[in-house]
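Course assignment 3, question 2. Fill in each field.
Student: A.L.
Task: Predict the tertiary structure for the chain below.
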Amino acid sequence: MKRLLSAVSALAAFATIGTAGAADLALKAPPLAPVDAWAGWYAGVNVGGSWGRARDTTTDGAPAVQFASTSSNLDGVIGGGQIGYNWRSNNWLFGLEADIQGSSQRGTANSAGTAGFFVPGIGVITINGTLSDQEKLPWFGTVRGRVGVLASPTWLLYATGGLAYGEIQSSEALTVGAATVVNNFNTTRAGWTVGGGVEGVLSGNWTAKLEYLYMDFGTINNRYTGLLFFNPMFLSTHVTDNIVRVGLNYHFH
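Answer field:
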């Protein structure tokens, strides 16, 4: 009987020690809460290419007569960074993103026009002129909303749209005979953008995206001094742009 009581006491003591040890382990190593790979702040970098269009309409004189209407491609390489914030509701993702880009986009178009004037006793005399239009988009940025759906826990499909802004540089070189006059204009212009993309989880807090945006910076009007009977000159420029870029984001959790 004494041996039986001793054995029962030993088992009870061991059970008590085991329970206390398990409780200590539970306190020391609580279970980790699941981390949402998408919600919250993120920042990253991107690189890509662009193919834009600058449509120039030039008139001269008062009243104005159309000198030429040209169109030039604005192609180049772009690169920059982005920062944003996401809110998640089930499989839906809502966010805001801002980016800034450097760009090598530029294009040139040449045109020719004729001005006529009346000389008493002689009649109408015409004079020819040529115009070289160069447009550049050295930098631009966007501030956009994003709405997306998680096709799977690691893949996001989204649409995006909002404000686009950038610097548009125009250089107009008018040549009449042996004389040339050059006028330069720099304008920071606001417009709009719309597009979409796909983003996927690479590993841990890192995601990669492929994105397309269409941008419209509207119409810019400038007036400048020309030469001889090509004066004054009026320039109307409408700039649109298409970009495709890949990006890498780090999500802060």
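Instructor remarks: Residues 39-251 form a domain with the Porin fold (CATH 2.40.160.20). The helical segments are 2-28.
Grade: pending
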